[in-house]
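Render sn-glycerol-3-phosphate import ATP-binding protein UgpC in 3D.
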Amino acid sequence: MASITLEGLRKTYAGNVQAVKGIDLAIEDGEFVVLVGPSGCGKSTLLRMVAGLETITDGTLKIGDRVVNKLEPAERDIAMVFQNYALYPHMTVYNNLAYGLKNRGFKKPEIEERVRKAAKMLEIEEYLERKPRKLSGGQRQRVAMGRALVREPAAFLFDEPLSNLDAKLRVQMRVEIKQLQRRLKTTSLYVTHDQLEAMTLGDRLVVLSAGKIEQVGTPMEIYSRP
Ligand code: ADP
Ligand code: ADP
């Protein structure tokens, strides 16, 4: 795993929309940071800049010691988990997990080993031959996480991964993500507007407001303030 460092990170969209206005943040190796704040405050823009899905207007982004501002998403050694699962409907679970590795030129034995390992960790081994439509919402979400996991990335990015699930599953997946985090010590940046998710998962919370950091602290520090 690796640290993620943001120095003076800015994003100005066409029309002079200043979505992110100079963010300084150091996410330590193995730390789970949750980004919260009202709709439109810039959470998604910030996450997408780290992922490489959005260009950086100004500032420096480092993963470990490496400046990655100009690198393609695939070269950043980070994996993103989306809320809409982003699974391939015509592929089995196995192939959904294997696909990215195949594209990256991994050999079959290595792919099989990584897929088995991730499937075991997420307890989806029994579903490897199924298509996504034969899975429950929670199982699909695990496959989505599995696709990130098999890459064994330096860091994980989560874009409201649980917001499409019903309340019961959300609680269950929250616990699972927490357990994974304990086991794997993943460096993570997690966007949500669910306060319970933020409190349960975050080592630290970053509260964003109109493109700027308003507060940074542990869940206790943030939510116990008057
Ligand atoms: P959040 O994820 O917190 O809801 P966003 O990062 O989506 O916030 O949006 C931050 C601001 O940037 C908003 O004012 C939004 O309207 C604007 N914005 C987001 N994406 C674009 C875009 N592609 N072009 C122009 N403005 C955008
Ligand atoms: P495609 O039709 O897209 O080639 P396949 O189902 O044939 O997809 O699988 C692609 C590769 O992955 C094949 O080499 C296959 O042997 C392997 N594979 C698929 N499912 C499993 C599995 N459960 N365990 C091990 N290897 C598998």
